[in-house]
Amino acid sequence: MNHSEKFIRSLKVNSIEALRRIPKADLHNHFYLGGNKQYIYKKTGKKISSLNYKLNSMDEMHSWVNKNIGNVFEGKKGRILALEASFAQAIHDGITILEIGEDIWANGYFYDNNVEELLNVFNSIHNMIAANIDLRLQIGLSRHCKIKDLEEWIEPFWDYDCFYSIDLYGDEMAQPIERFKGIYRKAKEKGLILKAHVGEWGDADSVKRAVSELELDEVQHGISASQSQQVMNWLSDHNIQLNVCPTSNVMLGRVESIAKHPIRKLFDNGIKVTINSDDVLIFNSPVSEEYIKLYQGGVFTATELDIIRLNGLN
C-alpha cells in the first residue's frame, strides 16, 4: 500500500496515529508559536492551555499568548527552546517538509547581527532533533518595521544561498504593499520563493494587488480571494498557490466554521491550495488534525485531501 492509499484509508477510519506516519508538508508555520506542548512541558514544567473560544482580532491573540505562554520563550535560550519545540512537533506529526525561518530583526536581537550564528542555531537543532526533515529556511519580514530598517537588516542575508523563501507578515494594513517592492525584487534576483501574508484580514482585491506588486509565487492565507470570481480566476491562471490554515481562520473569526471554510471554493476554482498549521501552540491543530477536520466536516473527500497533501510535498 503506497502513501496515498494509506492516507485515504487513515482518513476514512479516523486514525490520527496512522495519519501522523504519512509524509506531509507544513509550509505556513511560525516556529515561535509552532512547538510541541509536551516537549515544552518536559523542558520547563510550563503547561500551555488550549484556546477554547474564538478570538476577534490579532490583538486578542497576542493577549492570549501573553497570558497563556508568557515569557517561556524569553531571550536567546527561549528562542532556541521554541525552535526545538517546533522541530519536535514536526517529527510528532509526520512532517517531512518544514518551511520556517527567522525574522530579520531577530538577527540583531538574538544572534549579534551574525547570520552565520543564526544559521548555526537552526542547522544544529535541525540535525539534533529532526535531521530527516527537509528544512526550507525562510527570511521573515514584519510589516510593522520601517522599510529603511528592513533594507538594512536584510542586507547580510543576501550573501547566503541557503534560504528558500521570503515571507511578509503582520498587520495587513500596517503600510502599503508597494513599499516592499524593492526588497522583493532583490529576493527574486536571488532566486527565493516569494510569499506574503495577505487576504486573511484584507479583501479579494488586496490579494491580487499583493501578488501583482510583489510578484508572489505563493500566498499565506489568501482566503478572501474567494469573495471574487475574477480574482480566483486570475490566481488560477497565474498558478498562485495558497498556503491555508483552516483552524487558525476559524479561531480568529475569519471563517464561521471548518464546514463553511472557503478553501473548498478556492479548490473548485482551480487554485492550488495546501493545508498547514500556522501556530500550533495557540490553535492546537497540527496538520494531521487539519486533514481530519476537513474530511469529517464534509469539505473534501479523502482523495481530494490527498491531492492537497501532494500539493504541499511537490
Could you please describe the fold and organization of this structure?
The chain is of the alpha/beta class. Helices cover 47% and strands 14% of the residues. The protein has 16 helices and eight strands. It has an eight-stranded parallel β-sheet with strand order 1-2-3-4-5-6-7-8. Strand 6 (218-221), helix 11 and strand 7 (241-244) form a beta-alpha-beta unit. The longest helix is centred in the first third of the chain and has 18 residues, at 75-92. It is globular, with a radius of gyration of 19 Å. The relative contact order is 0.14.
Order of helices and strands: HHEHHHEHHEHEHEHEHEHHEHHH
Portion in beta strands: 5-15%
Q: Stretches where pLDDT falls below 50 for ≥5 residues?
A: none
The proportion of residues forming helix, as a percent range, comes to 40-55%
The largest sheet is: 8 strands, parallel
Count of DSSP helices? 16
Mean pLDDT: 97
The side-by-side strand order for the widest beta sheet comes to: 1-2-3-4-5-6-7-8
- The total beta strand count reads 8
Name the overall outline.
globular
For the CA atoms, what is the radius of gyration? Answer: 19 Å
Give the oligomeric state.
single chain
Structural class: alpha/beta
**Gap between N and C termini:** 20 Å
